[in-house]
User: What shape does this take?
Amino acid sequence: MTNQITLTRPDDWHLHLRDGAMLNAVLPETTRHFARAIIMPNLVPPVVTSADADAYKARIMEAVPEGADFTPLMTLYLTEDTDADDVAAAHASGLISAVKLYPAGATTNSASGVADFDKVRGVLERMAEIGLPLCVHGEVTDADIDIFDREAVFIDRVLDPIRRKTPDLRVVMEHITTSDGADYVKSASKNLAATITTHHLVINRNDILVGGIKPHYYCLPVAKRESHRLALRAAATSGDTRFFLGTDSAPHTDPNKLSACGCAGCFTAPNTMPILAHVFEDDGALDKLEGFTSLHGPAFYRLKPNTTKLTMTKGGAAPMPEKLITAEGEVTLFDPGFELQWQVTA
Ligand code: NCD
Ligand code: ZN
Assistant: This one.
């Protein structure tokens, strides 16, 4: 039985850090385990221009705890008015690592997202030319499409047409939640990868809805039926380099979660690594964990893996606190529903 594993230090390829007091509270939870993270730009107002990204990066660097070695990989929020030259300049200077596409209205703070995909054609073509990845929130927002079908319909109606018109565009389908998403990624010969969150490997839609509604399990894209969760587990633990970790750790205060119109998002930054060790061990795939958390992501983003390590030990793990106290209020950690045996020890 394996009781200790040492991995190349992991990265988080999809993270919400927010701003102000929340940023200060949640950032140490990420820097404790992760060396880099793709930073989501869905602030209010969003991070739209290179100047916005530059200023946000400075605020993040200011909040990095002393002694921590952390690099935020910035993104721009794609709007119908995004200027291709500004994007290209931000890429050339090394400021940004990706551009994020939110269909308008798809999720938290996505009101400025894209409604008419033809309007962003020029930017996408430019990104394909310069090799800058597009991170995609893959859900349609049409009122007539059932929320559980929105990912599959997005692939057919939006993503596949974009990829056919712009085959050189490098795309990350973020936080996939369905076997349709996993299959679509596997069917692509190049330029397509997907992130998978911690929570979508653990919960299905019953966990949200059976026996009383569980607002802390509500996130977007919403968790789907069990067969989809199993498909995600299979993809994550397969060793296929096109799948890697993006926690989508998305902190909201308890009053904002526990409301008649509760916010979407699971806060997983503090306990992701112990949960993933448990999940991969359960599936007999501990040897695939390092690829998922530390190697496949850098390969897609054309970066070197981290040179430092992270060691996890099984047994004797003290229970994690249930909540993180922040100056904005309490934020509840994602509860995987099983006892955590693994802990990060070095
Ligand atoms: C994210 C958030 O709160 O910003 N919420 C979520 O449920 N994942 C937005 C997102 O990534 O969809
Ligand atoms: Zn997200």
Q: What stands out?
A: Residues 93 and 283 are 42 Å apart (CA to CA). The chain has one domain: 4-344.
